[in-house]
Design goal:
By secondary structure, the chain is an alpha/beta fold. Helix content is 28%, strand content 11%. The protein has helices at residues 3-13, 45-51, 94-107, 126-135; strands spanning 20-24, 38-39, 42-43, 53-57, 76-78. Strands 1-4-5 form a 3-stranded parallel sheet, with helices on one face. A two-stranded antiparallel sheet has the order 2-3.
Amino acid sequence: MATYDSLCWLREQNPGVRFFWVIGSDWLQEGTDLRTWESKEGMTGERLVSEFGFLVMRRPGYDIANDDLSVFGPHFHWLSLPAGFCMVESTGSSTEVRRRAKRHWEENQDGEVLRAPIFLEGLVPAAVLAFILRRGLYKHLANKGTPSCPG
């Protein structure tokens, strides 16, 4: 399900709740434009940007000119972590996590997870990997086409 479709579904299921999409500042660089994202309704990026809020995490090496997020849309805000929290930095991407997880679950159809820690080693923190395995996240991707991204 595309980002816009997912957020619309969440909004319909939870009237009165305002949903935000968390992205890294790497998504706001030259050559990337959220307004071009597509969904089942076609090009819905413009609606995505105007209807939903975006919380932007700073990513090393991906600065925004003058820290001005307003140039990307009316609902973009910097996300700051609470005092005492720190961000775990990674060069990994959610697309790469999905790609590797898909391959892992396809190769382990019988539910075998003994070799599982290798498939995301170094890409996500150990606690995140344990959560993915415990919950069987991304199993639905097995034997399906690679998810299209962005969107």
